[in-house]
Amino acid sequence: MESVKRVVLDVLKPHQPDALEFSKAIAEVGSDYHVTLTVVEVDKNTETLQVEIVGSAIDFEAVQAAIATLGGALHSIDEVEVQSENDTG
């Protein structure tokens, strides 16, 4: 069994909720999620974000659902780190 330990996402969202509320809502998806959000670009109606999520077993589908609920759109998965059950490193 593999566990997703880290993902970096390219996300487009409206100005509201703000970056702080958006980060908190994603962090609430998992009990040990650490979320780092960087605003890459701002235009009249939207913000382009780089969202890094680190956790022991990230539920990617739940993260996607949270992003959609917050009015965001996932553009791409830019980085991913997966660990197998047998990987001790």
UniProtKB/TrEMBL annotation:
Instruction: Enumerate the InterPro entries for this protein.
Output: DUF211 (IPR003831), MTH889-like_dom_sf (IPR023129)
Natural source organism: Mariprofundus aestuarium
- Please identify the protein, giving its name as recorded: DUF211 domain-containing protein
Entry's transmembrane regions: none
Coiled-coil positions? none
Q: Name one Pfam family in it.
A: DUF211
